Amino acid sequence: MAPKRIVIVGGGAGGLALASKLGRKLGRSGKAEICLVDKSPVHIWKPKLHEVAVGVIDQSIEGLLYRDHGLKNGYRFLRGELIGCDPLKRQITLSKVLNHEGEQLLDERHVAYDALVLAIGSVSNSFNTPGAEQHCIFLDNLESANVFHNKLLDNLLLLDETKEKLSIGIVGAGATGVELAAELYHVLESVKDFGYLHIDKSHLEIHLIEAAQQLLPGLPDKVGAGAQSVLDHIGVRLHIGVQVKEVTKEGFITQDGVLIPAGLKVWAAGVKGPELLRQFTFLPLNQRNQIEVDACMRVKGQEYIYALGDCSSLIMDNGKCVPPRAQAAAQMAATLYKNLVNRLQGKAELPFRYQDYGSLVSLSRFSAVGNLMGNLRSGSLFIEGYLARIMYMSLYQRHLASLYGWFSALVYRLAQRLLKWHRPKLKLH
Fold this sequence. Notes:
Elements: E1 5-9, H1 13-27, E2 33-38, E3 42-43, H2 49-54, H3 59-62, E4 64-65, H4 66-73, E5 76-79, E6 82-86, E7 91-94, E8 97-98, E9 104-106, E10 109-112, E11 115-118, E12 123-124, H5 132-135, E13 137-138, H6 142-162, E14 166-171, H7 175-190, E15 204-210, H8 221-234, E16 237-240, E17 244-247, E18 251-254, E19 259-261, E20 264-267, E21 271-272, E22 291-292, E23 305-307, E24 312-313, H9 326-344, E25 358-363, E26 367-372, E27 381-384, H10 385-404, H11 406-421
Parallel strand pairs: 1-2, 1-11, 2-5, 11-23, 13-20, 14-15, 14-20, 15-16, 22-24
Antiparallel strand pairs: 3-4, 6-7, 7-10, 8-9, 12-21, 17-18, 18-19, 25-26, 26-27
C-alpha cells in the first residue's frame, strides 16, 4: 500500500533532511501528508552541539525552528516525545508537553501513520560505569549543551573572582571530545575581551581520557596523531589507553585507582540507541540498542516502519555496520526519500549503499584534521590546517542545502554570518 501519511520521529540530521525533501516533493502538492515529531522546538546540527556548549555559537542564530521551517517546506511539525507505538493500529503515542514551569500544555496524543520513520539518533554509552549518569553531562542534545554552557558560565564567574584553576574532564576522545577540548581553550583565550580580566588559559586544566590507544579511534592513525599534536601544543592533558572505572564528585577514578580531578565532567564515549527503544518489543535490537533494519532501511519484521541514522543498525556487504556519523544519516535520508517516493508511485525500493567520504575534525581556531576518501579520490588523503577547516565548513553547508536547497542555504548562511558579525563572538549569558 502506498504511504499517504508519513510520520518521521526525530528532527536530527537524517530526520529533518528527510522531512524537508518529502515535504517539498509530496507535502506541498498534497500527494502525501508529512509529519515531523521532535521533543524540542529547535534544531541544531549535532556536530555543532559542543560549540553551543562553550558559547561559540548562539542557538538563536544557528537554530532552526521546526514549525517555521515546516510551514515553508511542506511538512507539519508536532512537538512531543515518542512514548508508545502500536504497529497493528499504525499509530504512535506522544507524551504530554510541559512549559518551563512544569505546567501541562498538551495531553498525550495518538498520531496515525501509513509509514513511520524512526530517526531518534543516539546517546552516549556510559557502559554502566558507576557514577557516570549522576556526575557527568552527556552532550547528546540541545538541552544538555545548554546545561554545560550554564555550568561553564558559573565557573568562569567564580574563576574570575578567585583566580583558582578550573578543571574539566572529558571521557572519550572521539570527534565530540576532541573538538570540545579545543573549543574550551579558544574560549579561555577570548574571555578577557568580555570583562573577565583575571582569566587566561593558565587557569584552565582539561583532561581528555580515552580507553583506546589513540585519539579519534576508528579514524586513520595519521588523523589521530594530527589531533594529538595540536592538543598537546595548546595544553590539553591527554590520558590515552586509560579506562575509567568510576566517576565521583571529585573526578574520574581509573582502572589503576588514580583520581583524575575534574569539577566539570563530560561523558562523550561511545554511542548506543536511546533506552526508549527497549520498551517496544516488536523492534529487533542489537547489543548497542540499535534497531536492526534491512538494506532498504525497513525495520526487520515490519512492513510500514523504517529506521535511519544512529538509532539503526544496517549491515553492509562487507559485514560491517553503517557507522553512526552525520554523513551516514544524510545518505540514508537521501535513499529513503527516493524509496518512499517510489513506494507511493508503485515502484521498487532501492537498497542503501554507504559511501565513506572521509572524516573531518575541527580543532577550533587552532587547526582542523581529517581524511578524504571514497569517490573523492583513490585511497585516502590526509589533510590538515586551513584546507581541512574549509572542507569542514563545507559539510555544514551541505547539511543546510539538504534542508533549504542550495540557493536558499547560501542566503541563509550569509544572513547567519552578518548576524554574527555585529554580535559578540561568544555567548556569555
